[in-house]
Design goal:
The chain is 50% helix and 11% strand. The chain is of the alpha+beta class and 751 residues long.
């Protein structure tokens, strides 16, 4: 499909995850995708590993095989797919079936694709089919495996028509290596053939220099074997003559140049058969001034074998039968091998040497190179046809997977859409009464956690092991709902991967961040409760320890008194006892005064202010932690979690509180489920708690009555009720008559 020139393409965006994401909902959006500013893409690259996405499709997208899918590779795939299809309906639907009529046959490439698609259907036994499925293009290499020629320019052994060429192909692979044929079998390419025959020519030319040359081959056909023995003993014989020369130079050097008695004592207790390394370091024979090298007797036993070969192959042909070798004779032997050593240093074509000179010469004298070249040409004639079959496979994979990739690369629509999973979501972790859906595969905890901690998300790293298998993997699960009270290292759960297979999961590391505002609300009270519990435990432990110490001291004291004689107990100190009770009374009084002040201040408030005061106290305790948690929860970001896995996230994909609630689902009873509230195993309620509460309540009421707080409240309530009653009457009450003054006293009546 040709891209219609339109510089004014109107893009559509939606607000998801705190940023604007492009909506790829029309075929025109894909055709103009190269015009979209890369700054608006959700990601710029992603790895090809660790994703819940078809690995074959990712390999096709990764055109440079660097293990990453980049923007330009995505654009190339989209542009090519749009250019060879005349309808993108099946691509937008993510269908695994590609209608043949969707291929645009108005272009040369489209015609080739259509022809190859029909040929592929013929291979599958469906020549009349008009739809190519993902199963039809699966393992296309198997279709070519039985074919000797598949257009890749590599000839496997079975491509040869006769045994002679098959043998030569095997020899070439053994000498210069092989290439993998498209069918998966080893073979040889044109480069391998040229390298082999060039090495063969160089090797024969090198041998031609020595043929018939007595200076290079002083011992004829046995020269190479003799040279190997000479090379083995050369340094050792030189060492012997140098040592003898030093002994002749200074007689005092003779003893140090021979092994000392200490050296022999060091190896005397060993198995000398196994101590060849120590013996090999000894001289060939005993060192004396100007001594010739003995050839039969007095030799170092570690070198007896090579010396016997040296005498047989070199000394005897050169000088006849000798019992010892003079230094001048040794120098003559070295001179005889000088030309050979120079020739050996010039060796060329060593790759083919294992075949032997005769076999190499026979190959060069035949026409087998030309026959191999003909096989290469025959194979290359199918290159275009086979490459088109590979393109058909790519087209079917892109038709199914490309649109999904765009919605996880250009935009993160699949991640924010309900009912779908992003390609980086590897499965669901069930643990602690909740299901965490944001789980990503991790290559290594130490490399992932430092960057992932910047996401401000509570993460739990889990080692996962497949049941009845040795498969293992590591995941990082994000907790975005509930609390963290029961989440700890070592806690076990079950992880279900994208295929539905279950894995045993164990938490091995936690990155602690706020999970929810409700957790932050209760956090101060839980901390206070833990602190009180810890203090009670410490107090009880201290008292228990004090009792144990006191009992031990008492027993020891009783024993001491029994030994020294009983002494009368000291008299009871009434003043000290009264002082203790006075101190306790003062402490209780101070506590009571403080409680009374709080209660008095609270009771002195108007009724409508009491709930506000209570709410203010709660807000003062829980408000700071809730505010901090709220601010941190607003900063939760998907980017660092993916960046730590090798992504190049191009925006801040936030995980706010409402969206986070959808990623972690809490346990809830099904709708319509019946629930029985009676628990036969519930803890029995103890009545003393009720009596303690009633006692505290009566104490508080008594104290309030004693201070007149209850009477004040009663007067206020009565006054308010009286005011409401007077306001509700339609007529005002008559004013009371004024009391008579002394001046206006009534006259007394006459009797």
């Amino acid at each position: 499909m040709e891209n219609t020139p339109n510089t004014a393409h109107r893009w559509r965006f939606c607000r998801l995850g705190g940023f604007d994401q492009v909506r790829l909902e029309r075929a025109e959006d894909l055709q103009h995708l190269s015009e979209l500013d890369q700054k608006l893409w959700a990601a710029l690259s992603c790895p090809v590993n660790g994703l819940e996405f078809d690995s074959r499709t990712l390999a096709m997208l990764d055109s440079d095989s660097d293990g990453r899918v980049r923007v330009q590779e995505v654009l190339a795939a989209v542009n090519w797919t749009c250019s060879v299809l005349n309808s993108l309906d099946s691509l937008m639907a993510g269908s695994s079936e590609l209608p043949l009529q969707a291929i645009d046959d108005s272009t040369t490439e489209g015609q080739q694709l259509l022809a190859s698609a029909r040929q592929l259907l013929s291979f599958r036994g469906k020549p009349e089919a008009d739809i190519l499925t993902i199963e039809d293009v699966a393992d296309t290499s198997l279709l070519l495996q039985d074919s000797a020629f598949n257009g890749d320019g590599i000839i496997p052994v079975h491509a040869a028509e006769d045994e002679e060429i098959r043998t030569l192909i095997e020899e070439i692979m053994a000498c210069v290596g092989s290439d993998e044929d498209r069918s998966g079998l080893p073979g040889i390419s044109r480069e391998r053939i040229e390298l082999f025959f060039e090495s063969a020519r160089l090797y024969t030319e090198w041998w031609a220099k020595a043929t018939g040359n007595a200076d290079i081959l002083p011992f004829g056909e046995t020269t190479m074997d003799a040279a190997a023995v000479f090379s083995t003993l050369k340094n050792k014989i030189d060492d012997f003559f140098v040592r003898c020369s030093l002994a002749a130079f200074d007689a005092k050097a003779e003893d140090p140049l021979n092994p000392s008695i200490v050296t022999y004592e060091a190896i005397a207790g060993q198995d000398l058969h196994a101590a060849t390394e120590e013996l090999e370091r000894f001289p060939l024979a005993h060192i004396q001034a100007a001594r010739p090298l003995p050839l039969k007797e007095g030799l170092n036993p570690a070198w007896a074998g090579p010396m016997k070969q040296f005498v047989t192959m070199i000394v005897a042909p050169s000088f006849g039968s000798l019992d010892q070798l003079e230094e001048e004779q040794w120098q003559q032997i070295k001179a005889n091998f000088a030309a050979y050593e120079s020739w050996s240093a010039e060796k060329a074509g060593a790759e083919v040497e294992p075949l032997g000179l005769e076999r190499i010469q026979a190959i060069l004298q035949s026409s087998q190179q030309e026959r191999l070249e003909q096989l290469i040409e025959r194979d290359l004639l199918l290159t275009e046809q086979v490459d088109t079959i590979v393109k058909v496979e790519k087209l079917v994979h892109f038709n199914r997977d490309l649109y999904r990739l765009l919605n996880n690369f250009v935009a993160f629509r699949d991640f924010y859409a309900q009912g779908s999973k992003a390609i980086f979501q590897s499965g669901t972790l069930f643990i602690d009464g909740r299901a965490c859906e944001l789980c990503v595969k991790v290559a290594g905890i130490d490399t992932h956690s430092p960057l992932a901690s910047l996401s401000r998300t509570y993460l739990a790293y889990c080692n996962c092991k497949r049941r009845n298998s040795s498969e293992t993997m590591i995941i990082a699960a994000a907790f975005t709902g509930g609390d963290s009270d029961n989440l700890m290292v070592g806690r076990n759960g079950v992880f279900y991967d994208a295929k539905g297979d279950d894995w045993d999961a164990t938490i091995v590391k936690i990155i602690d961040h706020p999970i929810s505002v409700s957790q932050a609300f209760w956090s101060p009270y839980k901390r206070i409760g833990r602190m009180i519990g810890e203090q009670i435990e410490k107090f009880a432990a201290a008292k228990d320890k004090a009792v144990d110490s006191s009992a031990s001291a008492g027993i020891a004291d009783v024993g001491g008194k029994a030994a020294a004689g009983a002494k009368p107990a000291p008299p009871f100190d009434v003043g000290k006892f009264a002082g203790i009770f006075a101190a306790i009374g003062l402490a209780l009084g101070a506590i009571g005064t403080a409680i009374a002040a709080i209660i008095g201040g609270f009771m002195g408030l108007p009724l409508w202010q009491m709930p506000l005061a209570f709410g203010g106290i709660i807000l003062a305790i829980s408000g700071p932690s809730m505010l901090i948690a709220f601010l941190k929860l607003r900063q939760r970001n998907l980017g660092p979690i993916l960046d730590a896995n090798g992504w190049a996230v191009n925006t801040k994909a936030s995980i706010n509180i409402p969206f986070g609630a959808t990623l972690t689902k809490m346990a809830a009873l099904p709708k319509g489920a019946e629930r029985t509230m009676v628990d036969p195993f519930a803890e029995k309620k103890t009545p003393w708690k009720r009596w303690v509460f009633l006692l505290v309540l009566l104490t508080a009421l008594g104290y309030a009555w004693n201070k007149g707080y209850i009477e004040q409240i009663s007067h206020k309530i009565t006054a308010r009720m009286a005011g409401q009653t007077s306001d509700s009457q339609t007529k005002p009450a008559p004013a009371p008559a004024p009391a008579p003054s002394q001046e206006q006293k009534p006259e007394p009546k006459a009797k």
